[in-house]
Amino acid sequence: MHDPDVVILLFASGKLVCTGTVNEKMVYEAAEKLMAELIQKGLLIR
């Protein structure tokens, strides 16, 4: 994922691992961006 420049591993259990961040704020930004992309592509139903 770019901006923030991180790598996210998403497991079938729903857990994820986020690496490449320098602070906690970047983790939340990356998770929000990932969630938005999954919803947009119809892969996540809220």
Q: Uncertain runs with pLDDT below 50, 5 residues or more?
A: none
The proportion of residues forming helix, as a percent range, comes to 25-40%
Q: What is the terminal-to-terminal distance?
A: 22 Å
Quickly count the helices.
Answer: 1
Which structural class is indicated by helix and strand composition? alpha+beta
Write down the Rg.
11 Å
What is the H-and-E element order? Answer: EEH
As laid out across the biggest beta sheet, the strand order is 1-2
Major sheet attributes: 2 strands, antiparallel
- What's the rounded overall pLDDT mean? 89
Shape: globular
Strand content: 15-25%
Can you characterise this structure?
With about 45 residues, the chain is of the alpha+beta class. It has one domain (about 5-40). The chain is about 35% helix and about 15% strand. A two-stranded antiparallel ribbon has the order 1-2. The radius of gyration is 11 Å and the shape is globular. The mean pLDDT is about 90.
Summarize the model shown.
The protein has 46 residues and is α+β, with helices and mostly antiparallel strands. The chain contains one helix and two strands, in the order ββα.
Fill in the keyword field for this structure.
single chain, about 45 residues, alpha+beta, two-stranded antiparallel sheet, 1 helix, 2 strands, about 35% helix, globular
Tell me the layout of helices and strands.
Elements: E1 7-10, E2 16-19, H1 24-40
Antiparallel strand pairs: 1-2
